[in-house]
User: What shape does this take?
Amino acid sequence: MALQSLDIRQRSATTTAAPQARHTIEVAKLIDVSACIGCKACQVACMEWNDVRDEVGHCVGVYDNPADLTENSWTVMRYAEVEQDGKLEWLIRKDGCMHCTDPGCLKACPSPGAIIQYANGIVDFHQENCIGCGYCITGCPFNVPRISKKDGKAYKCTLCSDRVAVNQAPACAKACPTGAIHFGSKEDMKDYAEKRIADLKERGYDKAGLYDPPGVGGTHVMYVLHHADRPDLYSGLPVNPSISPLVALWKGAAKPLATLALAGVALGSLFHYVMKGPNEVSKEIEEEVEKEAETEDTK
Amino acid sequence: MIRDPKDLQRYNAGERANHWVVGISFILLALSGLAFFHPAFFPLTQLFGGATWARILHPYVGVFMAFFFVLLFLRFYKLNRMTDADREWLSRVKEMVDGDDHNMPIQGKYNGGQKVMFWGMTVCMVLMTVSGLFMWRAQFAVPIELARIGAVVHAAAGAVMIALIMVHVYAAIWTKGTIRAMWYGTVTRAWAKQHHRAWYRQMTGR
Assistant: This one.
């Protein structure tokens, strides 16, 4: 989808600047984990709006259903039963793409224009350019993209880029019955989060805080966590996510260095030939061999 | 070209066919692999019927090449054992590169440089195959850390391999009278005496 085609910050596998004449504000989705009741209305709204349907699965013994993100389930509720200081807590987190400012998927993607980061911060997959290599999965610090077994393309949450383009909130935010999902400018969401955090602290959650990890330059999906010191309690939310150094090396320094090295070898060979000349059989040896052959013939 | 009956047979038909099967596979893999490595090379995917086709085909060609490389390895590894004469040759490789081979030690069927090439290619091929399987998401699901290590190793070994092949091809172009050995199998006696004298003696009894 080429909506907001002028408002692009980054484009996968593209080494020149993206069109960026217009400067839209950064948007963000704020998920207030402390207000979530785990009803899965967001999951339903997501499938409804994006018109994707997952297969009806089976109960795996917990509330998580489907049990994991898939090419048709771009968001899933993850339920963690956590016991701390003799107190049992049911920590429910709506999982999905975090829309990183520094997206590992986009960095790793080899196909020009298959992954786009809009100026408003949304990271979108454009399946018509996707080649199905799965490098986005290798690059993602949150284990979000999924490749469809049916068409071999990668899918994930679009943050309802089509809705946002026409000033609508994402479907999940619209459907949430408790107001746990907020959507607006990133600044507004941060301000709102601060109020929520102050409230939580008053209620005894002194470690409450905002999850907007700096390792990926901040995200455009943020969480208000009652235990911001332990994001891992929320079904393994990464404590300090960043693009893996291996991915950074692979899709960073290695690219120009290897390209230059190969060009060096190719040009080096050419100029070696030009400057040193070919390695030919010497006249001397040719004559020697000829003589040997003659003596052989006379035998 | 008129072929002299006195020419020496360097490669038989099976060896030549095996070499070119591996060579063609390598070219296909290098072109499609570079396309996924750096966006500057991405248009090369058009040679394969589009980027998605290039992505689908690349790993199968890789497995195909690995199989035929093993056959090539089995044909030639005995001839590529390093000797003291090879080490001596390698220590003086600068003279050779400068185009002065007068003082180079006498070499058998392969010189030290060719043997280094053989083992370098072998190591690269093993690294490429194993790391490639880690990256083949359509067939295998490996832990993410392994996929990341695989990606880095695949890129690094691939770059080294392409560089080695460039040197391999250039050496064949530079040393006149060499390429025919891989086309139809024979070299002239003078060529053999100049570049591989020990092999020449072994073949002619002189």
Q: What stands out?
A: The two ends of chain B are 26 Å apart (CA to CA).
